[in-house]
Amino acid sequence: MKKLGKFFVLAVLIQFLGILACSGGGSASDYAKIEADTQNITGTGDSTNGSGNSEDSEATNGSGDSENFEVTDGSGGSENSEATNGSGDSENSEDTDGSADSGNSGISSNFNVTVENGVLVINTDDEGAIVIDGTELTLVVDDGNGGLSLADGVSIALSDNSGNAVSGDVSVDGETGTIYFSPQSGLDSNETYTLSLEVNGQVYETTVIVSVEDGETEEPLFADVPFYPKGTYSMNDLMVQGKAIMGWEFGESPKAFRMKLTGLGEGEVALLTIYGTYNIENHEDEVFYQRWAGGSHDGEPCKDYEWRGNIISINEDDASLDSETNDNSFWSTYVEIKIMKDGVDVTAQSEVLLIIK
Known about the structure:
This protein is mainly beta. 7% of the residues lie in helices and 34% in strands. The chain has two domains: 26-99 and 217-356, no CATH class; 106-210, Immunoglobulin-like (Sandwich), CATH 2.60.40. The chain has two helices and 26 strands. Strands 16, 17, 19, 20, 22, 24 and 25 form a seven-stranded antiparallel sheet that branches.
């Protein structure tokens, strides 16, 4: 009996080590490095082997489900799966998908550069300067008449993710030294912009993005989305204003999470859009697209990505706005899932389950 017991313990240990080897687990920072069809998404990773299953996922049980993912009865998840601030359901089914092309507010990789009411705002200090990547740049000087104006040798330009110049007018508040760049057309929430400050022939750059939704939205969608714990959820569990959206808060103690889909029916296609928020003063209520980092979609938002249901790992990292001096990690993430069949949105009728691990 003692020998049999030892063999049993040894067999369990071997099986456990085998699962660890298959899982490819790691720290939160590792998750952001996992590839998604040879692409990375900022703060999100997804690795597939062509079959729809993640090469980095745990050994499966033959049904396509990971043995380390507890699949429940679809009634709303595990015993701990109740949303922290309510069920997440809303009787208001008005379509407010937050996909407007232009945004009125935004942030950048430099805390002194923001977007307010569709205008790019550069806040200089009392000396008319701004610091970019550790270099102090004097942009505004006394104009000799008791006011402030742009210093000689300073030029300001804005370009989109493709490098195309964005037309606009530059002005300076003569009393405060605040610089404004007013684009001739609205800024696009799908785009990643580059603000270029040229000072005496040297160019300094800052990345700018605009929000999908801000705190002044008339009927905010994301304000009604609760934060969920790990568990299993049906699409109906996640419904807010007619959309299936799962919220996750990293907060002050960031923790990566993984998710996958099960139960995709024949002919059903899952479309994935991922949003994020930042804990930046006066911009806490703004919601932005999370973006691909690397690959053919580098810099593009993760929007209506055709998801086969394989494991995706998400953490708080945000390479698009991080700079040498500012850490703009995500404070929260919102995952929107749309199930389509024959061109029709069948999310509410679908039996698809979202598993958060």
